[in-house]
Amino acid sequence: MHRRDPNKDQVLVGTSKGQVRLYRLTNLENSTEQKREPNRIKEWEGQAGPVNAIEYSADGKLVAVASLNEIRIFSADGKRLVICSGHHGAVYAVAFSPDAKQLYTGGYDGQIRIFETKKGELTKTFAPVTLKDGALAAVPPAK
Question: Does residue 138 have a pLDDT over 80?
């Protein structure tokens, strides 16, 4: 999984082992025996499981990294700000609202969740419902 920084010539790469690494995309250097990853800028905090999704906010100031049971929101420089918990299993999809105040997530458990990005609080859950042929769709809970 990877995502390009919207403001810089850099790409954030997540691995199946939960590693998150930032690489530059310009002025590239060849690998040598002494410098195996010369274009790596920084290694971010490791995740609880495989990295399944990465998304930058529209302004590039926040980054969401989805893994197992949670999503971690980082500043663009790699500092963890909050952890959004509540999923049961892998989280496969993340998207910021245009103003980056909310994070929309979806995962293996079939539920779509909305988190507030400042504190990582869960604000809404959409329960899955079965459609014909076993397909699923998410609908808001009844009030």
Answer: no
